[in-house]
Amino acid sequence: MNEPGPPSPHTRRRGGAVARMLGEHCALGGPFALLCITPETCDDDSIIASLDAQLTQLASHTECDTPEADEVRLALHAAAAQLLDTKVRRHLIANWRESHAAAATAPTGAPPAGRRVPRSPGRTRAQLALEHDAILTLGLYGGWNKRSLHRLVLLAHARGMDAAQVAHTLHLLSRHRRRVPSAAPRNGTARPDPSRAPADESHTDTPPESRGPEFRVIALGLGIIAAMVFVIALVAVVVLLFNPRDAGPVQTGANAGGSASIAGPTNPTASPRIEPFAPVSRPATSELELVELAMRAPALIAQATHALAIDTTQAIEDFEHAVGALALAWPTVPQDTHVAARHEIIEFLYRASPHARIGERAIASIAAGLAPLHAPGQFDDTNLWPAVWASGMLTRLSSEKDLGGIVRQRIAAELIAALRERRVVRDPTYRAGALAALNAMTDAHPGETGHTPFPWDRWADAAHALSRSNPRAREALLLDALETVLVDAPEPNDDKYVFDAIRLLAHRIKWRSGDESRRRLLAWFLDERVSSADLHALTSTLARESSAPGVDVTMILPLLASDQVRSQLRGRFATAWGMTAGVDRRTVAAELAAAARDAMTAMPSDATRADLLRRTVRLSRLNEAVGWAWKGRSQEADELLAALDDSLDGSAAGAPTRNAPGPVPHTPADAGSGTSWAERYLAAKQRVPMRLDLLEQLDSMKIPDAVAAELLVHDALRGTPARVRQRAQEVVRSHVTNAAVTNAALEQLPLMPRTNDNARLIEAITFAVLPAVSSDEWRLQARRALVETLLQRLSAQGDLAGLDGYVDQLALSYVGRSSRSPLVGPDRENIVPVDPSFAASMLFRRWRASVDRAVAQGASAIDTDAVDRRRTGRLGLATGPVQQFAAHQASLCEVMAVVIASERPEGASRIRALMDDMTDQRRRAIDIYRQIHAVERSMLELWLMRIGEANL
After folding, report:
1. Rounded to an integer, what distance in angstroms lies between the CA atom of residue 776 and that of residue 430?
2. What Rg value do the Cα atoms of the chain yield, rounded?
3. Can you tell me the distance from the alpha carbon of 852 to that of 848, in angstroms, rounded to the nearest whole number?
4. Dist CA 490 CA 496 (whole Å)
5. Which stretch of 135-144, 315-324, 576-585 has the lowest confidence by average pLDDT?
6. Which positions ≥6 away from 350 have C-beta within 8 Å?
7. What DSSP element (H or E) covers 133?
């Protein structure tokens, strides 16, 4: 810790003034000595009373009207403001106890330990509370000025005090600023106090004791006149500033002490208390101070939330300062503190919803960190963490549907501009948004080297902070980033920054037994995309600098190693780590080729849409498996091949669906009876017990027909008596996924009474959030929700029942193809379903980046500009999600052809012929499902060309 420097002349002058006017014990330093108070007696009443006593003593000094005395007064108010802030007080008490651990002695003149300073008489609880806030305000705003007076008026109005009470309280507070005549002793002479004598002995003014009685009368009269003028002026200022329109919401009704409650729950049995502001407008000046401020971010944001009811300008400034510190230092903050800060930010935005300008400014302060994502390659040590935090926070806020329209539009616009296709749509959590930013950085960086190295250490710290409780996920992030550098970055022997990146990431990975890192290293030896120079940099780091067991300097791959040397060294690593060679690479390639030939058989002309989608899903899974086999992940490819037909066997009706209702226990509608449930229910008429029994039967069986659904919903919405209506509503809630129930509710809607119970039942059927039932828009919104829900549930029946399931499986396969790691086993089961067109666009983006690198190397055998033009035209003509998927898929196939033709120039003519055949099949297809199938088949043929040429 740095030693404090010599005091400035100003500090020495003020310290001498304190000693001269208040005594040597008050100049020892710190707010406790200045106010003559100890931590044991430090509470709000004692602080205010001690301040009064010190100001009274200062006012009785002969130099009370000098500038030095004003400096002492300001120091007293600042000390009181610090101690009145509970958080600052705890910090000061802790420091005081540490410094006095050896011998803690109370300063001279301080009240005894454990004894309270008596409260000044003549002031009510509300006046003391306002005086408490006034002292804090003076410390925050630097004394009496326009801003401090305005804030005091707002605080007083929130407490329910009128102008006269405010003026009286402020007069009591400010009376100590004037000179108070000292009381004369009984003998009529005043004894001089040596401790309060002027420092300059040559001072020639006549002391007050030597002046005549006439002079004292005149001075007393002038003092009274000055006091009256001051009070009148203060009351005038208060009355002019006391404008209820500037204040926050006031709680009406009787409250203890006549005070009003501001923002948040209060105790009805106690006087409400306004939480004071902490002085957060001062920028952090060191990394340690920045971390400390980030740790306090939840409390500071909560204070800003409460301040919205008092001063919106100050509230948003404090919010911006706390958010800025949190964005700069969030990986150093404990997880629970970070979660609490996110909750406080959400609360602030909801409280700011009546102020659209404040909400938009708050979103702008959060989104400020996204700037580097708009121009990839511009990351450094100071802006990487804020970019990750801003992406995660805005993604989390995008799930809040009740924020104002302007705020939500701003959030969506910021995410689209920064993340584009990577923005999180289905799982809008903080972690998902932050990971999207991390992945976007690694995708954009490898080609951006030179004089602006990417801050991989900061990136790794952010990845660690996002996966504190999941070491497996953290290792996967580091491995994916390392693979991106190995594959996409320049050669490490040509670029020092690339070598440093490989070295740093390899250090962060543990390489322990059973970890995925060892399997990935063995796969990189077989991956054509990873050069021998990349493996040289990686193996040299493992042998010389890492703690990987069993690795020595003889296991460093040479820079120009052949495929045979790579294979031999791979075997040595496998032996050293006790790993088997895994499945045979050529065997997996042969099995994949056989499965591909079987899948590419001609499609029957009478195939249904379900058959077409099932075959398309199978082709996509084969493309996924072949892709991972080509990357050296033979074991994962074998697992994907073994699960090729999972969830695809059986007819379309038996396929998995998203919208089909779950299984419902079935009981025959009329066991042993020739009448239907509906007929018996109508026959019951006014016999309530019989109707209740029939409703009880219907609760445990499927709705037998549309007539039964109509009767059930009629009684749930309009039935009598009330117990029948309540029981019918319970039965409807157990059958909300039934399309007949939804249709019955749609038919009953025009005549349905608009009650809260009926509104909640409609929301239960539609799973929608509707406006208040008293709103004019309620019936229209309810009808729209019922129509949309009915269409969705009808699409899950009949011939269309299996299509949704196949669509989900197709989207899942595309996600696996665009993922950085294979999705097998539990990883595949835990994926949230995504929009297929979105998954196809992500896969296209990854392949398009490969095209850019191929063009940069001057190896483009197919016109890439024509590919981009055709994609733009397809997307412009596409209407609906199916056509959008088809447009992305066709463009994906074309960019695959560009990449493979660049890798294998000798096969460019075959590839062009294949693409011409695919275009012809798409033109001759009778529907879009056949087009999708033809494109997926062409992509598999491209993979087979790549595998055959690679001689895998």
Report:
1. 36
2. 39
3. 6
4. 10
5. 135-144
6. 400, 402, 403
7. helix 125-141
Residue 306: CB atoms within 10 A of its CB come to 19
Peptide bond into 107 cis (omega under 30): no
Lowest mean pLDDT among 197-206, 304-313, 586-595, 777-786: 197-206
Both tokens of 189, joined, read 């002479």
Number of DSSP helices (H) and strands (E) in the chain, helices first: 41, 0
Please check whether residue 38 is in contact with residue 45, taking contact to mean a CB–CB distance below 8 angstroms.
no
Helix (H, G, I), strand (E, B) or coil at 561: coil
DSSP 247-301: S-----S--GGG----SS---TTS---PPPPP---SPP-SHHHHHHHHHTHHHHH
Which tens digit of pLDDT belongs to each residue from 69-101?
777 877 887 788 777 777 677 777 777 676 665
Short-list 134, 111, 109, CA closest to 123:
134
Whether the predicted pLDDT of 842 surpasses 60: yes
Residue type at position 46 = S
Single out the residue of 173, 135, 157 nearest to residue 56, CA to CA.
173
CA dihedral defined by 707, 711, 717, 719, rounded to 10 degrees? Answer: 170
3 state DSSP class of 633? coil
Q: List own/partner pairs for 757-766 with CB under 8 A and 24 or more apart.
A: 757/729, 758/717, 761/716, 761/717, 761/729, 761/732, 761/733, 762/786, 764/732, 764/733, 764/736, 765/732, 765/736, 765/741, 765/789, 766/742
Which residues, other chains included, contact 8 with Cβ-Cβ below 8 Å and sequence gap of 6+? none
Nearest in space to 419 (alpha carbons), one of 388, 373, 376: 373
Q: Provide DSSP, 201-241.
A: TT--SPPGGGS-HHHHHHHHHHHHHHHHHHHHHHHHHHHHH
- Other CB atoms within a 10 A radius of the CB of residue 794 amount to 14
| 99 burial via Cβ count (<10 Å: 0-12, 13-18, 19+) | exposed
Q: Give the C-alpha distances (Å, rounded to integers) separating 425 from 433, 835, 909.
A: 10, 9, 41
Pair of tokens at residue 349:
């935005």
Query: Hey, what are 104's tokens?
Result: 């803690």
Measured CA distances, 597 to 626, 926, 944 (Å): 13, 24, 10
Amino acid at 72: V
